[in-house]
Amino acid sequence: xxxxxxEDSGVIPTPVKIVIAGGFGAGKxxxxxxxxxxxxxxxxxxxxxxxxxxxxxxxxxxxxxxxVALDFGRITIxxxxxxYLFGTPGQDxxxxxxxxxxxxxxxxxxxxxxxxxxxxxxxxxxxxxxxxPFIVAVNCxxxxxxYEEDEIRTALAISPGVPVMFFxxxxxxxxxxxxxxxVRYAMSKLPAQPELTRA
Length: 199
What we know:
By secondary structure, the chain is an alpha/beta fold. The chain has one domain: 3-Layer(aba) Sandwich (Rossmann fold), CATH 3.40.50.300. The chain has helices spanning 6-9, 28-35, 98-102, 121-129, 149-155, 172-188, and strands spanning 14-22, 41-46, 65-78, 81-87, 107-112, 134-139, 164-167. It is globular and about 50 Å long.
């Protein structure tokens, strides 16, 4: 792997934690894998009959694997900033992990699958209630219907200030743009620093 330059310049980059969340099958593992500069840690396991009647596969019937703990990846944005990505598991039975995964995060990319919009409500509600900045990234699946931003915002009751974007979790560039959008939004939510006055 090519050097990021921070080792050569002596700069110690600031670590920034970001959560990738969303419903079951929304593309969280795919996004982390597409953008990570290291081989991502993935806890994907083959789905078995034990999940029958437990995990709702409506709209994602061909899905054969599932995240059982978390996904982890890293991407260097600049010599000063490294993003550490934590992908949440999407099934209801693993939501107890979300509080730990969200601890210390500057913000969250909430992935939305328009084939299963109802699976997005819990993630949006989770981060709204905890006042953690998030953006909504609609993962454009090949077999999904097209919607306008206003339709997505209305269907999910997203607050006017929360950014909504369309992207492809399989694309490194598209995923990078989503992360940059989140970082900018999260920074805009930081309290203003008081100006220093000269003596």
